[in-house]
Design goal:
Elements: H1 2-6, H2 18-35, H3 40-69, H4 79-88, H5 102-122, H6 135-162
Helix pairs in contact: 2-3, 2-4, 2-5, 3-4, 3-6, 4-5, 4-6, 5-6
């Protein structure tokens, strides 16, 4: 059950790009909530809850996947990507205010998704330093910081290209 949770119910066991698959659910939830004009507070609360859930699952259950696979960061563990992607969308509430068109909502969602994946894969300093933390913390912390970096760049992009 622990490995099922850390793989986001099997997404991490898909044969190609498991981290990308694990990042999709928060992005889809964000886009749909914004599309249906959910209040900004609710969007932020849901993204925070998803980040917290992914974080708890990763820290608590990743050691089981580490023990089973013998790898420090098993590819099947994608709860960290799930949490990091939710951080990327944590505070982009203007989209839910009716100020954005459907196209803008999906463009911002796609940009946030790609930005998070780029930071998660490239792991620029200091993101790469966090991988050295023990067990689930090392798996999780770099993704949370990648989510913060992606959020910062996404907010700049929103200000430059969406909100004028």
């Amino acid at each position: 059950m622990k490995r099922l949770a850390t793989s986001c119910f099997g997404l991490g066991r898909l044969p190609v790009a498991p981290g990308t698959w694990g990042s999709l659910p928060p992005a889809i939830v964000f886009a749909l909530m914004c599309h249906f004009r959910t209040s900004p507070a609710i969007v932020s609360i849901v993204m925070a809850a998803l980040a917290l859930a992914g974080s708890v699952v990763c820290v608590q259950f990743a050691p089981a996947a580490i023990a089973a696979t013998g790898k420090n960061d098993p590819g099947e563990v994608v709860a960290d990507e799930f949490a990091g992607q939710a951080i990327t969308f944590l505070a982009s509430p203007f989209l839910a205010l009716g100020a954005a068109s459907t196209g803008q909502i999906w463009a911002v969602t796609a940009a946030g998704f790609v930005l998070f994946r780029v930071f998660d894969i490239a792991k620029p300093w200091p993101i790469n330093k966090l991988e050295k933390l023990p067990e689930g913390w090392g798996i999780l912390a770099d993704d949370l910081l990648a989510g913060v970096f992606a959020w910062i760049v996404l907010q700049i992009c929103i200000k430059l290209f969406i909100v004028r």
